[in-house]
Amino acid sequence: MELLAGADQTVLVALHDLTLAARYCDRLLLMHRGRLVACGAPAAVLTPEHLAQIFEVDAELATDALGRPAVAFRGPLRPPVPDPHGPPTPHDPPTPLDPPAPLDPATPARPALRQGSS
């Protein structure tokens, strides 16, 4: 990134690391769900309001111990809502957002059904 930042050329890069973007980019485009939210210098784009709106976090653009730009995250905007039923147990059915369970090599695989068979 330092080589690219020092080049006398226009470089287009897509970054999800906000600190890296603030440190090396002269101009940022902040997008959310395919729409442009802000455009400009890192200090104008990475505002606490934009970070809260897009990422739902309490954060600000600050400087690190070496004086370089860094995004300082303080935490989520709202504390997570506890589940009224408590944490899931191993016997709870998976929800659509749960990752699939790992395959057990001791369990034989079921043969795929062919079209027309039951």
From TrEMBL:
Gene3D superfamilies reported for this sequence: P-loop containing nucleotide triphosphate hydrolases (3.40.50.300)
Signal peptide positions on this chain: none
Composition-biased stretches (Pro residues): 77-105
Bias-annotated ranges (Low complexity): 106-118
Domain of life: Bacteria
Annotated spans, Disordered: 72-118
InterPro entries: P-loop_NTPase
Protein name in the entry: Uncharacterized protein
Lineage summary: Bacteria, Bacillati, Actinomycetota, Actinomycetes, Kitasatosporales
